[in-house]
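#lab-general

N.A. 3:47 PM
ok so I finally got the sequence cleaned up, no stray characters, all 153 residues accounted for. can someone with queue access submit it? mine expired

B.Y. 3:52 PM
send it over

N.A. 3:53 PM
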Amino acid sequence: MPDGEVRYVATARVDPADTDFTARIAEHRDRRPAHWTTVESAVGPTLAGVLRAGGPPTLVDDLGTWLTAELDAADAWNRPRGTIGPRCDDLVDAVAGYPGTLVLVSPEVGLGVIPETRSGRLFRDEIGSLNGRLAQVCDDVVLAVAGLTVRLK
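B.Y. 4:20 PM
back already:
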């Protein structure tokens, strides 16, 4: 990211009962450069809304926590696949139309075994579909594995 103004979009939803995740979020906040502006998309406008507003170079971290929150909000864990399709469509459209520098962080979960649980399979399938769709509208795609990066596009 550039040395100047940067907007960091955090997608995690804080659950005060989950002290481990709360501590992780605090550590992550502490590591961020002080001059970055942070937007908490879980408590403010939608992620697509944040992106449609434009702005400085933006880092979205991460799409896995965004997707989980969207699945939760739609009560989609036990509903038919595609329940959150319109939310994903909205995000892909916002990314495609973003006018500036945008970096998206997303997990790659399709390299391992197929999860045993329905929720695990749903997440794996939905994030895989979302990642593929976003890769189509992004100029560059980089895979990070074991601290090394591989340029895919």
